[in-house]
Amino acid sequence: MLAPPLAPGDLVEIDCTDLIAKTGQAVGRSNGMVVYVLGPVPGERARVRIESVKAKYAVADLVEILTYSADRVEPFCAVFGTCGGCQVQHLAYAAQLRWKRDIVANALRRLGGIAEADVRPPVGMADPRAYRNKMALVVTGGAARGSDIADTQFGFYAARTHDVVPIERCPIVMPQLDETIAGLWDAARDPATGRAFTGARHVIARAGLASGECVVSITTDRTSHALPPVAQALAAKLPGAVGIGNSSEPPSENAVMGRRNVTVFGKTEMQEEIDGVRFRVSPASFFQVNSEMVGKIFGYLRPQAAQAGRIIDLYCGAGTFALYFAKHGARVVGIEENPNAVREARVNATLNGVDARTTFLSGRVEATLRSKIGIEALAAADAVFLDPPRKGSDEATLGALVRARVPHVWYLSCNPATLARDLAQLVAGGYRLGSVQPFDMFPQTGHIEALAALHRADVASLEFAPTI
Length: 468
Prior knowledge:
Blueprint: E1 11-15, E2 18-19, E3 26-30, E4 33-37, E5 45-53, E6 57-67, H1 93-112, E7 118-119, E8 134-140, E9 153-157, E10 164-166, H2 175-189, E11 200-207, E12 214-220, H3 231-236, E13 241-248, E14 260-266, E15 270-274, E16 277-281, H4 291-307, E17 310-314, H5 320-327, E18 331-336, H6 339-351, E19 358-362, H7 365-368, H8 372-380, E20 383-386, H9 395-404, E21 408-413, H10 416-428, E22 431-439, E23 449-456
Helix pairs in contact: 1-10
């Protein structure tokens, strides 16, 4: 039996050619084996020490960078590399966008068998910082564990672990949420408000870019009796806080929100407005974390939305895109399995005056499309818009689109791998793939959103402009 080409403790030099999106690890080779190491960026040569060896790859620790890339920049967060929130702050933003385009194109080619896809340069942000409108902090120590409230801490999980990195500021969240972090630390040390975090596991905060409103929810195992008496005083320490909630009975050890959600002070939801569409959103809602980038996706969709008279929005959440389509004259059927999100979508439809042009159905997408109302909606649809979770759509749903011969399909995805898999099924079913436009919804991370436009071979394409 041949010995492995590398062994733990070996010092080797590698040329780094790529990054792993999920972890930010650089990729190189030594003695024919792939080596993963945190720290370098593509184009750099590094000396590394092998830490572990698997069947097909090795993991190494960085010793020193021997040759630097022009794309390397200084990370702007003090805990970058420790906190697991960002993976590529050390890579210049223009290089991040090029890398993310390659991630999408490579996934389509390798996993979808689509070699000649028109993957356009990603739409990025003018300032790729301070964009997240939602954060979920882990609460540790102090009141969270029934001890001295002065020892309460807030943080994010470290990369690839459940160790908690204390966080006193975060340059990725909106400035208002950054100030909210400071307010939470202050509240935890104030005897008048510190007991608000008794038994707390997480603090979830969501802010509106347009409104400046913020809603905060504290997750506990059981209903908190300590929070309600001090909730108003807590809100006074958090910028723009219009509501404090208690989420309890989490369904799993890792769940951020619980099954039971009650408001203990103020309002359940905050307001946001994007490109003329108003939303009321709670901490538990599925709502895109980058309001600026949602506005850019809206602008990209606008010309086609105006031409499509009837649109089905699958996995519609609280109606983010359905409401935009309806605002621009379309009749929209939204389908979403989360009944709370459907209720929010209906409220938001009323808020925007588009009740008459929207219908929201609660149920699993694949089952609803098999129902009488789903079959009729598909038969009448000019276009289907779908924005599924990271696991993508499913064969039953995509098969229903193929059988109904819906003229146009617009697929927004946050996972290039499942996007490639699902596009392959649609192409095999008779659709032609037009443009694929990435949007950098998550700067400084390995995540990328992409909008693929497909049309039936026997209908004219609604082609998207290459720039917006």
